[in-house]
Amino acid sequence: MQSLSATSAAGVLLDLSGAAILLLSFACLGSKLFNRYLAYYGAQSVVLSFAAGVAAYAFGSIELWILAVATLAIKGIGIPVSARRLLIQRLELKRDAALSTGLSTSLIAGGALTAFAYLVTRPQLLPHGLVAAAVVPLSTAVILLGGLSMVVRRHTVAQLIGWLIVENGVFLGAITLVATFPFIVEAGIFLDLVAGVLIMVVFVSGLTRRLASASAGELRELQG
Amino acid sequence: MIALMILAAAGPLTGTLAAGCGARARPAGWAAAAGALVSLVCAVWLLTAQLHRTPLRGWGGYLYLDSLSCFFVLTVAAVTLLASVGSVAYLSAEQDAGRLSSFQVRLYYIFFGLFAALMLAALETGNLGLLFVLIEASTLASAALVGLEARASSLEAAWKYVIISSFGVTIALAGTLFLYYSASGLHLAVEYRLAWPYLFSHAHALAPGSLRLAFMLAVVGYGTKVGLAPMHTWLPDAHAEAPSPASAMLSAALLNTGMYAIIRFLAITHARLGDAFPRAVLLAFGFLSIVIGVLFMIRRGNFKRLFAYSSVEHMGIIAVALGFGGLLGLYGALLQTLNHAIAKAVLFLTSGDVALRYKTREAAGVHGMLTAVPVTGGALLLGSFAVLGSPPFGVFLSELTIVRAGFATSSPVFPLLLLALLAVAFVAFARTTTGMVTGAPPGEPGDEPTPYGGRAARLAAAAPLGVGLVALLVLGLWIPAGLDTVIRHCVAVMS
Questions:
Q1: Which of A222, B80, B180, B434 is the most exposed, fewest CB within 10 Å of its CB?
Q2: Chain A neighbours among B 451-480 (CB < 8 Å)?
């Protein structure tokens, strides 16, 4: 099976991008202001598209180039910019509606989850020496951190971005071994993502109109 | 045959097309029902034609149909037919009462058709990546149905549903990724990288550590869609807030589609890692779901939530049956899937009639249905006894099979626990529904007995209930030879 070795130039670059993506997920987790949170997510997606570009170059795969460009355009630029417009201009929201735990608690939990990701995925996966073996724990950690951001953030839009971080983690894992999933699958995942964001935005604006603020803390009508 | 497969999946799109072209509620509803009928006929045809042949493949493995997928296609198509006939009556009544605008009705049919078609397509693919794509897409289509009425509570339910399910399914995608990694020792051609039949036949060469992780992630991820506890939290809200025929689709079709995905992962895991590991995982999630479902059924409140928690319980029972495994366990699981789907479709459709007639979704506000609305009341009473597993209905037979499987394959503690929980569920559920059907009806004796105007609408409301109950009765008395053969073939596919 076709895969990159960890010592090749592309392998080193992918490894570094993986580490940068993990750090940016921590930055998202730790940022209090909404615009920073969005900016870190955007930066993470830009690094991800760079990683996809590296893989595309290494494998000589046109499909992966397309995905890299789509990632840059939609996840790196489109979503952060439009989310910013929606939140800060239309909903007049400057700050995040706070975390439900303390900042340090969530960072410590994030550290624990990263350690857990390494514990679970390190020993059993791929033969050592492949770049995938190094990147898979990173991508697992990004998935867990995205989930954590969804849990600790109160605002619905912040939860949406948390889901997109999870998606970034999965995508990072998918590009490292063999070129990628079959193109039709990757394209389908991308379409789902775009449709998902659109439908979620419709719900968020509906909720904002009804509840004055779309903080998930106010969603408490349905219980039991 | 390939054309037939495509037709089976594309059938429900007739409703989408009709509504997209601007048809009114009734014509769009009948178009949706006709499309569902086409799907059902195709499913039966495929099932009979394919029974003793090798699985159908097409488009480089993206299309794949064996007995197991055929069985689920049949279930989903049958539920879609019941729900779309029910929609004809329900949606026009809602529109006449001024609760839905004609635009909302059109949106309903557009997304209803998409939702059904995407689920059917998900069942007909052999590529696990595409399976994820289609299941996630069906989540989005059904989220639009949940939020359709655009009240604050339905938007809240829709938000909860879409965010929790999308996250869950993304976890399942990570599981798919790990499955893909576990196959890194194999030298696979591009088109086989995520192909289920290929991975299944080479299961012995998969890396066990990675596969174990893949199975766990798939159970948690797709289990979110199935409504296994503790990932079930979206389920009661979405079922309670969606229009009733859409609730029927969620409970009887969507949950089964999720379970189908878990079964595909289970088959591969079972072939590589043996009995013990998948059994432990499925029994844990299954029993937790049954306990949570039963506990919340004791509370008396919104009857649609009651039915939803009963779905959590039943999905738990199916997971437990899959965990028991063996011929009996798998047979019971599939039979239970079919029975539960029909029974729950009937119950949710009656819940729509009740909500229209009594203008409340609280069980405490509903009395005397047998006197006031004898047809709906009778269907609710029979349907709830059917879903609770009393003889002579089908669920009794399948639950008995599952308990027998438990005694045959594991320590007697599990089947005894299952029986005890079923007894509690019976009391909790029947207490509420019998309270709804008996007693004196509220209001003047001269009240309109039915919320539906016109004979066609009344017929459309009553027909799915009658057909569903008759099917349940037949399945309880006698399993047709054809169905028995099909289920045995499905079990052979899984092991």
A1: B434
A2: none
The whole-number pLDDT of residue A1 equals 40
**Considering only alpha carbons, which residue of chain A is nearest residue B299?**
A224
Q: Which residue of A has its CA nearest to B132?
A: A189
A141 contact B CB<8A: no
Search chain A and give the residue with CA nearest B156: A219
Q: What is the pLDDT of residue B450?
A: 66
- Whole-angstrom CA distances from A117 to A107, A113, A122, A180, B382 are 15, 6, 8, 22, 50
Q: Does the pLDDT of residue B423 top 60, yes or no?
A: yes
Write the DSSP symbol of residue B65.
Answer: E
Which residue in chain B is spatially nearest to A1 when comparing CA positions? B187
Find out whether B194 and A181 touch, Cβ atoms under 8 Å.
yes
Q: Does residue A62 register a pLDDT over 90?
A: no
Average pLDDT, chain A: 81
Distance of alpha carbon A77 from alpha carbon A82, whole angstroms = 8
Q: Do B180 and A177 touch (CB under 8 A)?
A: yes
As a whole-number percent, the residues of chain B with pLDDT over 70 amount to: 97
B441 or B113, higher pLDDT: B113
In a mutational test of the A interface, the residue from B149, B151, B154, B159 whose CB has the highest number of chain A CBs within 10 Å is: B159
Chain B positions touching A189 (Cβ under 8 A) are 129, 132-133, 136, 173
Residue A209 has pLDDT above 70, yes or no: yes
As for the ipTM of the complex, it is 0.89
Under an 8 A CB cutoff, do A188 and B130 touch? yes
Give me the domain span that covers residue B233: 2-494
DSSP string, chain A: --B-BTTSHHHHHHHHHHHHHHHHHHHHHH--BHHHHHHHHHHHHHHHHHHHHHHHHHHT-HHHHHHHHHIIIIIIIIHHHHHHIIIIIIS---B---BSS-HHHHHHHHHHHHHHHHHHHTTTSSPTTBHHHHHHHHHHHHHHHHHHHHHHB-BHHHHHHHHHHHHHHHHHHHHHBSS-S-HHHHHHHHHHHHHHHHHHHHHHHHHHHHHSS-BGGG--S---
Q: How many inter-chain contacts (A to B, CB under 8 Å) are there?
A: 140
What φ, ψ does residue B295 adopt, rounded to 5°? -60, -40
HEC string of B132-200? Answer: HHHHHHHHHHHHHHHCCCCCHHHHHHHHHHHHHHHHHHHHHHHHHHHHHHHCCCCCCCHHHCCEHHHHH
- Per-residue pLDDT tens for B59-111? 777 889 988 999 999 999 999 999 999 999 898 888 888 888 888 999 999 99
Q: Averaged over A78-86, what is the pLDDT?
A: 84
What is the pLDDT confidence band of residue A96, given thresholds at 50, 70 and 90?
low
- How many structural domains does chain B have? 1
- Which residues between 155 and 184 in chain B have a beta carbon less than 8 angstroms from any beta carbon of chain A? 155-160, 162-163, 166-167, 170-171, 173-174, 177, 180-181, 184
Question: Who contacts B212 (Cβ-Cβ below 8 Å, separation ≥6)?
Answer: A124, B269, B273, B277
**Tell me: the pLDDT tens digits for B22-33?**
778 888 889 999
Q: What is the pLDDT of residue A124?
A: 57
Domain edges within chain A: 9-213
Q: Give me the residues paired with residue A3 across strands.
A: A177
DSSP B308-348: HHHHHHHHHHHHHHHHH-HHHHHHHHHHHHHHHHHHHHHHH
B361-407 pLDDT per residue, tens: 888 888 888 888 888 889 999 999 999 988 889 999 999 999 999 99
pTM: 0.92
